[in-house]
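User: structure tokens for this one?
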Amino acid sequence: MDMNQPNVIETSAAARAAGTLGRDRSIGAILIDAGRLDVESAERIIREQKAKGLRFGDAAIELGLLKQSDIDFALARQFDYPYLNASDETVSPQLVAAFNPFSPAVEQLRALRSQLMVRWFAEDPSQKALSIVSPDRGDGRSYIAANLAIVFSQLGERTLLIDADLRNPSQDKLFKLDPRAPGLSAVLSGRANGEAVVRIPSLVGLSVLPAGAVPPNPQELLSRPQFSRLIEQASKSFDAIIIDTAAASTGADAQVASARAGASLLVARRDYTATEQLHALIASLRGSSAQLLGSVLNAY
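Assistant:
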């Protein structure tokens, strides 16, 4: 995230006003550096804080100088849990985990992450890949995959999001990547290698392998040994690999990707996903070598 950097004199004054000691920056110093608070206001807050025995944030809110969102922002920086400003245009607003990590939707994603850590990623060090599948387009599968990858990266896990929807890819749009750049289809056809993986600078620990050009033979590409080798190689560099897949209604790509990953998570959308489609996909997944870890009802 781009922020205006104060000059040396201003930074020094901010540090004194906010009580910064060594490398442990206080809430006040963080907010001054981010341009959300000036030095004079920080001094007013500190006087109020000392006079009434309040915490810095409580004193600031009482004085009307800061909002709770400002305090949440600073606490996230203190605990190495950065997120993006609403004005940031480097990625899509649909990535709620990047913009609003304290919302109910993201709390649910973190709960899902915890379940996946316990039931899959922590069971065996070699289990690092997970496919996200759904019966049809519009179920919110790509939304879940992208935001789940973000919350894994916010945990400190080196995370790779692979867009294996080679029919109707969307991760390049969500992360605003160059649609002309090589992606998974180029890797699987031997026309690209690791350079197709894009690190997302504004989201520490997260990398994306977009789908790339839409090929005429998506299922055949995913069935090639190169896909298994890709996941094997990625497992050496990443702690978690989240794979977005094509809707099951468009072909058997999701089942193939799930078999390569070893496990899958099923997504359905409230008041949208057809029950018969859901049951059919569950049956096909259970007939494969992939472990079906559970299902998510998407209400967003």
